User: Fold these one by one.
Assistant:
Number 1:
Amino acid sequence: MSSSNVLTIYVRLYLVIQTYMSIETKLSFQDVIRVTHRDSISDLVRKGRIIERNVLVNAIQAHVDDRIISYKNKCVVFNE
């Protein structure tokens, strides 16, 4: 797999996460996962799904726990 393909996967994953996490103040939750050149396409897809799920769960949990405060164009997320 070439580095441009891996970069494309990262960019797509970032855009998907941004889409899921866009709240009124465009708050975005992010996370990283380690990948290597030895990972196959199916490994990258699996890891991408894992990270999407984890980030979405963390964002929803922060919202449910009322740890997100937005004021004008500012947004603060408090730790657990």
Note: The longest strand covers residues 68-71.
Number 2:
Amino acid sequence: MPRRTYAEIFLDKLTELSGDEPCLIGNKTLRNELDWDEDRYEWIKAQLVDENRIILGRGKGGSVGLATAARTVIGHLRRNLAKPLCLAAVAKKP
């Protein structure tokens, strides 16, 4: 079985943290979940942005989301500017 790439690991963890909802996950939360140093995290994140596989969000520390969910996120924000999209930074699911 071939080894998974860092990009695959990043996307799998982002998908896991996003759950069933299309949402943006804080960079700090995702990096801590991956247990990566900042250099590796930023390098892989930049690669995935260049490949249009993830999108970047704003906020303190920034955030990332799956590019496939971008349309859903944008639609949600247009309809519900005051409502949170998801609470992905909350403690891990049991």
Note: The helical segments are 6-18, 27-34, 38-50, 70-79.
